[in-house]
Amino acid sequence: MNNRAATIGGYVAGFALLFLIWHFASQFLVRSVLFPSPFPVFERAVVLIEDGLLQEAVLASMRRILQGFLLGSALGIPIGLALGSFRPVRLLLEPWTEFFRFIPAVAMITVAVIWFGIGEESKIFLIAYTTVFVVIIATAAGVGAVGKDKIRAAQCLGANRFQLFALVALPATVPYILTGMRLAMANAFVTIVAAELVASNDGLGKMLWDARLFMQVEDIFVALISLGLLGFATDRTFRLLIRAFAGRFNPTM
Questions:
Q1: What's the CA gap between 35 and 118, in Å, rounded?
Q2: What is the pLDDT of the chain when averaged over all its residues?
Q3: Distance of CA 19 to the CA centre of its chain
Q4: What angle do CA 236, 240, 243 make, to 5 degrees?
């Protein structure tokens, strides 16, 4: 309980320091209408919440992020396991992985809109695209990092190939998979903004785009703060779920 209170207190103090530095910079360093202090931004956030606009944008973006993230992870984990476990698969698919992972999701926006239109499918595709390669690389690295001594010990105990994979390689790879998923989640937040800037009727990216067009600087900062807080909350939630359901595989413990 004390550890939890200390953690929450540290988070609160950290955010308070961030906003204090922001206020100081806006009042004494920049002093521009294009860089407002936190107070008018918070006031604007309250107005948007009362109108229901901020909640609508947050829910739209988070829905797309989670759908694309889960799809990309569901594809990336088995591909990464196959890549790391079987040399023929690695020789066949590694060029694909190395080729596509260096094409940024932003560059694929036009292709996604052409293929799927401006509906939800294009945004989910982009999130899955930016997620899948991070998860593949992390998972394959985890399989490659399994200690030879563990494999030999299992073989000495009579383990067959399936048991080696299910009881030795897979559990040892789980921390790498979870780390890859956490990194991929950050990519998903970056990509959703770009996707919604180009083709969307709602979401935080659309809010940023509209605010830029009409020079509503407070709205821009509200969207940025919302993205940061959502990302922070999502990562903490992810860590709590890992601790609750896969505690012994938690890479952060």
A1: 32
A2: 85
A3: 24
A4: 140
Q: Are residues 2 and 77 in the same domain?
A: no
Q: How far apart are the C-alpha atoms of 119 and 98, rounded to whole Å?
A: 29
- Find where tokens 């996604």 sit: 112
Whether 58 and 231 have beta carbons less than 8 Å apart is answered as no
Instruction: State the Cα–Cα distance between residues 34 and 212, nearest whole angstrom.
Output: 11
The reported pTM is 0.84
Which CATH number is 190's domain given?
1.10.3720.10
Alpha-carbon gap, residue 152 to 169, rounded angstroms: 12
What number of residues does the chain have? Answer: 253
> Do 112 and 125 form a contact (C-beta atoms < 8 A)?
yes
- What is the DSSP code string of 46-80? HHHHHHTHHHHHHHHHHHHHHHHHHHHHHHHHHHH
Give 191-238 pLDDT, tens digit per residue.
Answer: 888 888 776 788 898 899 889 888 899 999 999 999 999 999 998 888
Domain that holds residue 201: 40-249
| Alpha-carbon span 253 to 244, nearest angstrom | 12
Give the number of domains in the chain: 2
Name every residue whose Cβ is closer than 8 Å to that of residue 202 and which is 6 or more positions away in sequence.
Answer: 56, 57, 60, 196
Residues 115 and 74 in one domain: yes
Cα 148 to Cα 183: distance, rounded to the nearest angstrom: 27
Cα 226 off chain centre by: 15
